[in-house]
């Protein structure tokens, strides 16, 4: 076992020497960045839904089968607003950007909270495989387009009694009890067929792969083809075992098959390095925020 300081030094060296970095990011990265889905943040924005329906984290509330679309969108507009539009200021994504911004990099992520772009990462170097909280699509879907939802989401949270501070933070003015529904006219509907919209998230086979998604997918494939013989570092951050086929297993395979590849896995509690790439990789069981601060 290497000491943590040695590991950080090795990561620094590998990144410095690399021709290219491919970042693979999962939910653990956003958790490290402060986007927690239970505890204080849940209590602050969802205690009314939590006591009405008996859930205590945002994910569970997202799966709840609400009786009306007005209530469904009351829940989801708060959820989208605080996880997509409101900032959490612990600097993790910005530190990650500082680490790679002068390198040839690409990001593959299952995260849908848009934090890479907010931190400065170039859009053409990102592939959001699972969608984006900031996009609506037809719920059916009748056509393969997505729609920016910022204005609708803001209107929906304001209609529940919330206010938005100058820095973008959502808060309840004193004495206001939030409504748990939005007016029917704010329920988003498809501009082509009039059916209810849904979020552009890969939850089932209705997920719309729009032109932007297809372009990003093609960019990723091209990046990998162009760099297969180069000195490439696969930097896996907070990828768990919900959808390991998208990032983790691919990275293991690239690391094993490409002569000049090196694999780094940073994950609090779940870091793992397969035996066949033992000499071409590193697993760090630690908080991503702390490791990034150590690297800068
Ligand atoms: Zn439609």
TrEMBL record:
<keyword id="KW-0862">Zinc</keyword>
<feature type="binding site">
    <location>
        <position position="190"/>
    </location>
    <ligand>
        <name>Zn(2+)</name>
    </ligand>
</feature>
<feature type="domain" description="Deacetylase sirtuin-type">
    <location>
        <begin position="1"/>
        <end position="296"/>
    </location>
</feature>
<keyword id="KW-0479">Metal-binding</keyword>
<feature type="binding site">
    <location>
        <position position="142"/>
    </location>
    <ligand>
        <name>Zn(2+)</name>
    </ligand>
</feature>
<feature type="binding site">
    <location>
        <position position="193"/>
    </location>
    <ligand>
        <name>Zn(2+)</name>
    </ligand>
</feature>
<protein>
    <submittedName>
        <fullName>Sir2 silent information regulator family NAD-dependent deacetylase</fullName>
    </submittedName>
</protein>
<feature type="binding site">
    <location>
        <position position="138"/>
    </location>
    <ligand>
        <name>Zn(2+)</name>
    </ligand>
</feature>
<dbReference type="InterPro" id="IPR029035">
    <property type="entry name" value="DHS-like_NAD/FAD-binding_dom"/>
</dbReference>
<keyword id="KW-0520">NAD</keyword>
<dbReference type="InterPro" id="IPR026590">
    <property type="entry name" value="Ssirtuin_cat_dom"/>
</dbReference>
């Amino acid at each position: 076992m290497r000491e943590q300081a040695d590991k950080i030094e090795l990561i620094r060296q590998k990144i410095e020497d690399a021709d290219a970095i491919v970042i693979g990011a999962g939910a653990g990265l956003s958790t490290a960045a402060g986007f927690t889905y239970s505890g204080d943040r849940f209590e602050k924005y969802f205690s009314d839904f939590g006591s009405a329906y008996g859930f205590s984290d945002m994910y569970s509330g997202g799966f709840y089968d609400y009786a009306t679309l007005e209530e469904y969108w009351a829940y989801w507009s708060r959820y989208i607003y605080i996880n997509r539009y409101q900032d959490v200021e612990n600097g993790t994504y910005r530190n990650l950007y500082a680490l790679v911004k002068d390198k040839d990099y690409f990001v593959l992520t299952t995260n849908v909270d848009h934090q890479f772009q907010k931190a400065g990462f170039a859009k053409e170097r990102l592939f959001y495989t699972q969608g984006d909280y900031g996009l609506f699509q037809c719920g059916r879907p009748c056509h393969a387009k997505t729609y920016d939802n910022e204005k609708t989401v803001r209107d929906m949270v304001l209609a529940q009694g919330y206010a938005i501070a100058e820095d973008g933070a959502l808060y309840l003015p004193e004495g206001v009890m939030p409504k748990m529904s939005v007016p029917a006219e704010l329920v988003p509907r498809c501009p082509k067929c009039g059916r209810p919209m849904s979020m552009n998230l890969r939850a089932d086979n209705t997920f719309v792969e729009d032109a932007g998604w297809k372009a990003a997918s093609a960019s990723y494939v091209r990046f990998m083809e162009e760099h297969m013989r180069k000195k490439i570092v696969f930097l896996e951050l907070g990828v768990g075992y919900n959808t390991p086929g998208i990032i983790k297993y691919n990275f293991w395979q690239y690391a094993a098959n490409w002569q000049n590849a090196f694999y780094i896995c940073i994950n609090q509690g779940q870091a793992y390095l397969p035996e066949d790439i033992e000499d071409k990789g590193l697993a760090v069981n630690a908080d991503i925020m702390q490791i990034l601060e150590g690297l800068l």
